[in-house]
């Protein structure tokens, strides 16, 4: 399938309503029918303001977090519409991608067609 890989970058402490931004993105993706998402916590990093943020032994509030999804063009449109409607500002990277499931019947058909 052709679509996009989108990675959102945020911090553990950032919230929208009662949820962290990462949790909100996961819940919204699921609600929109996006089949999967991955949350990854980073050791540290810096953002637009240049300030270094990292997880500390007892405090993880400033810990950088990534949320990655692989989506169809339609799901991409719906996700960004929802983010705009909620007036959220989240840094992201969006890359055109081909994705699928190894061993799937469609993959076998593609292999037969391509040689």
Task: Give an account of the 3D structure.
The protein is α+β, with helices and mostly antiparallel strands. The chain has a single domain (2-98), classed as Alpha-Beta Plaits (2-Layer Sandwich). The protein contains three helices and eight strands. The strands form three sheets. It has a four-stranded antiparallel β-sheet with strand order 4-7-1-8. It has a two-stranded antiparallel sheet with strand order 2-3.
Tally of distinct domains: 1
Q: Report on the biggest sheet.
A: 4 strands, antiparallel
State the separation between the terminal residues, measured CA to CA: 19 Å
What's the overall average pLDDT, rounded? 88
Helix percent band: 25-40%
Oligomer: single chain
The secondary-structure element order is EEEHEEEEHEH
Briefly, what is this?
It is built from 3 helices and 8 strands.
Write the layout of secondary structure elements.
Blueprint: E1 2-11, E2 15-16, E3 19-20, H1 21-31, E4 38-41, E5 44-46, E6 52-54, E7 64-71, H2 73-85, E8 91-98, H3 105-113
Antiparallel strand pairs: 1-7, 1-8, 2-3, 4-7, 5-6
Defining key terms:
N-reg_PII/ATP_PRibTrfase_C; two-stranded antiparallel ribbon; 115 residues; UPF0166; 3 helices; alpha+beta; N-reg_PII-like_a/b; 8 strands; DUF190 domain-containing protein
């Amino acid at each position: 399938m052709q679509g996009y890989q989108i990675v959102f970058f945020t911090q553990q402490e950032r919230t929208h309503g009662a949820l962290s931004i990462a949790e909100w993105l996961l819940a919204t993706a699921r609600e929109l029918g996006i089949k999967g998402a991955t949350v990854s916590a980073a050791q540290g990093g810096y953002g637009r303001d240049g300030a270094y943020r990292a997880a500390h032994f007892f405090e993880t509030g400033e810990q950088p977090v990534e949320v990655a999804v692989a989506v169809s063009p339609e799901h991409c449109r719906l996700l960004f519409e929802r983010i705009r409607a909620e007036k959220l500002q989240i840094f992201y990277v969006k890359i055109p991608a081909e994705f699928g499931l190894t061993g799937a019947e469609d993959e076998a058909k593609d292999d037969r067609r391509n040689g």
